[in-house]
Amino acid sequence: MKLFSWFVIGMLMSTIPGCSDRGAPIAKKKPHELTIHGDTRIDNYYWLCERDNPKVLNYLKAENAYREKVMAHTKPFEEKLFQEMKSRIKEDDSSVPAREGEYWYYTRYEEGREYPIYCRKHGFLDAPEEILLDVNKLAEGHDFCQVRGFKTSPDHSIASYAVDYVGRRKYTLHFIDLQNGQHLPDEITEMTGNFVWANDNKTVFYTKQHPETLRWGKIVRHTLGGDDELVYFEEDKTFDASIGKTLDDAYLVIFSGSTLQTECRILNADFPEGEFVPFLKREPKHEYSIEHGGDRWFILTNDGAKNFKLMQTPDDNTGKEHWTTVVEHSADALLEDVTVFKNWVIVEGTEKALPFMCVINRRNNSRYDIDFGESAFAAFVGENREYDTDILRYAFESMKTPNSVFDFDLKTRKKELKKQQPVLGGFDPEHYETERVWAAARDGVKVPMSLLYKKGPQHNGENPV
Q1: Judgement on whether residues 249 and 192 belong to the same structural domain of the protein
Q2: Is pTM beyond 0.90 here?
Q3: Does 14 map to a domain?
Q4: Same-domain status, 216 and 323
Q5: Is 10 helix (H, G, I), strand (E, B) or coil?
């Protein structure tokens, strides 16, 4: 068997010019001119992008064979590392259930199986489990399987998911009738995995990409049992387009963005046959994003605000002349995202190299920052599916605290730990300390440093970083 393997490797390598059994395969140079903005450059290896070219495939096989050969002696060590990492991961794991309407949705994993199982329970967490999609079954017979965007229709009667069996990020969108567990005949191929439901429970908007560059550029409307219709095409090749839905389920939003410029288009989610209209037309170097809540829009914008500011405007007047300030611009704090509930607004940002969450009471405009309890950490808003709620779910992690999920009561300011990622192998976070310190560089600029150390060392100058 070994002799045969080395023979195969040798044969593969011999098909590539410049390749021998003693050296790495060398790709042939084939000069190809590429001209853009009046500048021409030569790419000697452009031919390698020809995915179906037998010579390209043979070259890649030879590269893989060479890697297998030169790395053969590390196989036992690779297996040892894999088993050690695996031993520290809880295989039979599950996510924290998230409430949406009358259902609790969650995913779980089973020991010895690689893929998630999407489930829900009706009404209460002790109710019988309903398995909506077992990705392990989808993956049977495939070398690769990835599911993206699993979600149900607004009335929770139809499940939808996008699956890719190749790894090219070209997904096929499927629909399941949850009354009988059968797939609907609707099947949308060659899409990105980005899609949303309108409020009529039969219309879906999804994004299609360019077949070669994979740029997200087309937004298409699909009606179950009906035809597809292109509703938006992003003509500017420097922009990508995607579609989302506001947390209050009131609007569908097409987001177009490039490096330094964005634009949003909106449509009432109750009327999916309507036309998307610009919220604010794109402007040079203007980046903004929007979220809706009740009778108004909230806008995160860098218009005259390098670190962004938060504005608001009435439902029916989205022009900048109607915007009023919610959070002023700060030279010291970068505003990065906003979550809008019925009675609360959560502003996420970074200040002094640490994340913060500012809670704003929409009824009286009072505000406070959430205290995360450690001096060096990462935190972000988690899965929040309900608009009318006083509970914020967020994720937290530090160098001593494993990934954790908290439910935070916005009224009482009390948090409840819902889950902490188990770390097997005897790890105990109580044995360690984390600390944030600032070190002065030669030019006087202070640089943040996050420290992790076992409890015990004293800050006496004898314990250097």
Answers
A1: yes
A2: no
A3: yes
A4: no
A5: helix
